[in-house]
Amino acid sequence: MKATDQMMRQDMRRLRIQPLLHEILHIVGKHLSDEDYRRNALRDLHNELFDKFHEMGIEIVSDHMRAAMGLPARGPDGWTVEELIALEQKRIEMLTRPIQLVVPGQER
Question: Which of 38, 49, 84, 91 could form a disulfide with 32 if both were Cys (CB 3.0 to 4.6 A apart)?
């Protein structure tokens, strides 16, 4: 991956973190009364949460963004059809594996 590609990916992550932070700070802000304290607290909270979310790789990809990127739609449970098929195939594979019992003292 080129350095410019890495920079672009990080910029997109920054853009995807912002909607999550906006909603969190909107909720938190309603619980702070003093206007000056509120402004400073929200700024500090924004910076700290932004840094933590960025460090952890947290970002929001909405259904609208997924469609714009050409990704398949997610169902009501949060999975794409392809992901559900892959998960079900893994479950079937686990169910069809032979069971191997090991009896103490009779190991090979």
Answer: 38
